[in-house]
Amino acid sequence: MFKRRKFKDKVHRISIEPVTAYILLTFLVIIISGIFSLFNLQTTYNIVDSSRMEIVQITAKVENLFSFDGLKYIVSNASRNFAAFAPLSTYLVAMIGLVFCEASGFFDALFKRFVAKLNNRFLTFLVILIATISSLINEVGFVILIPLSALLYKAKKRNPMIGVSAAFAGCAFGYGTSVFIGSLETQLIPYTTTAARLVDRTFHVSLLSNLYIMIVSTIVLSIVGTIIIEKIIVPILGKYRVKKELMDNDELEIIEDSELEQAALSNDYNEKRGYKAASITAIILVLFFIYSVIPDLPGSGLLLDYNEETYLKQIFGDNSYFQDGFTYMISLIFFIVSIVYGIFSRKFKSDKDAIKACSLPLSRVGNMLILLFVASQFIGVFRKANIGVVLTGILANILASFSFGGIIYLVIAVIIMMISDYFLTGTQAKWIIFSPVIIPVLMQSNMSPQFVQFVMRGVDSMTNGITPLYAYFVIYIGYMNMYKSVDDKPISIGSGIRIMLPYFAIISITWLLIILGWYILGLPIGPGVYPTV
Fold first, then answer.
1. Handedness of CA 228, 229, 230, 231 (dihedral sign)
2. Rounded Cα–Cα distance for residues 486 and 500 (Å)
3. What are residue 42's phi and psi, to 5 degrees?
4. Nearest CA to 177 among 467, 420, 427?
5. Distance CA 137, CA 327 (A)
6. What SS3 state is found at 372?
7. Which residue intervals of 84-159 are DSSP H helices?
């Protein structure tokens, strides 16, 4: 009995490093692709071709990577997979600004003036709310808000992993909603419109069709998310423990009280001067940033794509300079503001001081780069194997085989799309496959395509935070390990998922209640748009 319990305790203590886990998962995908290919796993399904505004039938099959050609692809495309991995470039760009802000002491000065006064729960609410809204501009929240939130909670003497978890949860589980229309509308509406025209050739989906339900959902999800973080996840993560040990060769320096008082006064004066200069600089840069997205003014519109006709596509379209350059602009603002603060606060007396001060924050980048590399190989190999697309096609065909519609069909569609989302994480990629199946059936059940599109947005958010196939999951795992308290026990992929499971369960129920409640009450989901046709 004692030996059995000892063995269970030993197994419980085993925690695989995320780097090792991603490598093992990559090999597992290669083997599975070989097995599926051996059994000729494939499926034929319909997709929406938005460019030709028609439905096209295609066949997808699992590609065998456990073969000579497959292994050759893996070896020859390792660099390409890494370079094309979306979190890599955005993370590195964001880190430049964040590192200088931390090194200059600007964050400390900012937190001292504002964050220290905030209630803990209100801070969590703000983090989740801003993280949810950040989905307006793709995945910028993951690379900026997660590290920023960690520093915020650390400044509040709380576990930085709480900040990482709150920001990641808001970004991942709230990705399908925001307080205004953004890039997701421009991606989904063409497919929604094409699928709706299978039933009504004149049907039109407006950009504002989900506005009301999005605003309410954002607020509700942020409130519920705050309760989950504070009541469930905070006790799981525990308190933050920092080890401070005096080395044998360290010497104690005795400083007079008068010297300490003089130094404190001098630092306070320099800090106030630096903060004032940095604030003025930040205001000027933000105003310039805003001016760059305003059209038809002298010298304005620098970040707009004037090849597009509508303003929304100019700012959120596929070739939008605003959307593509947003992370860089935010990082540039952080960088310039921190340099100004460092100079006026006399933290930086030369460029050497600035670079030297950044050495400690930059030392954390190395581990993250290794993690990003192995994660990029895993996700690249999985996509090449085409497993996610084939499974989604099979699930779409299962959904298409049902001969009934209505609210029961909608609930079944939600469950099936949730399963699909675990393996195929791209919102647009799934909607191309599911929209021609779901929309015609539910339109004939008197359910509006605009409402079905919102349902898709909610479903897509439900599982983002618990699948390692979600590209930005690696950012979450990386920062959780960066701030973990116990050095000898890493936060594994499984541990990271387990931390998020309560959030997943409660937020999924919340999403479902919002969807069903809105439909039953028949409230408008946007200007002149209702859940029913």
1. positive
2. 19
3. -155, 170
4. 427
5. 9
6. helix
7. 86-104, 106-113, 120-133, 140-155
324 burial (CB, 10 Å; 0-12 / 13-18 / 19+) is middle
Question: Which amino acid is it at 345?
Answer: S
Alpha-carbon span 19 to 25, nearest angstrom: 10
Intra-chain end-to-end CA distance of the chain, in Å: 65
- Return the H-helix or E-strand segment holding 61: strand 54-61
Reported confidence tier of residue 6, pLDDT bands at 50, 70, 90 = very low
Tokens 């905030």 correspond to what residue? 118
* Tens digits of residue pLDDT in 478-507: 999 988 876 668 889 999 999 999 999 999
Please choose, from the candidates 284, 308, 285, the residue with its C-alpha nearest in 3D space to the C-alpha of residue 295. Answer: 308
Concatenate the DSSP letters of all residues of 205-249 into one string.
Answer: --TTTTHHHHHHHHHHHHHHHHHHIIIIIHHHH----------TT
C-alpha 438/C-alpha 452 separation (Å) is 8
Question: Tell me: the pLDDT tens digits for 290-321?
Answer: 888 888 888 788 888 888 777 777 787 767 78
User: Is the distance from CB of 90 to CB of 140 less than 8 angstroms?
Assistant: yes
Instruction: Sort residue 406 into left (φ over 0), alpha (ψ -120 to 50) or beta.
Output: left
Q: Facing residues of 532 across strands?
A: 447
Distance CA 360, CA 366 (A): 11
Nearest to 226 by CA among 181, 162, 175, 287: 162
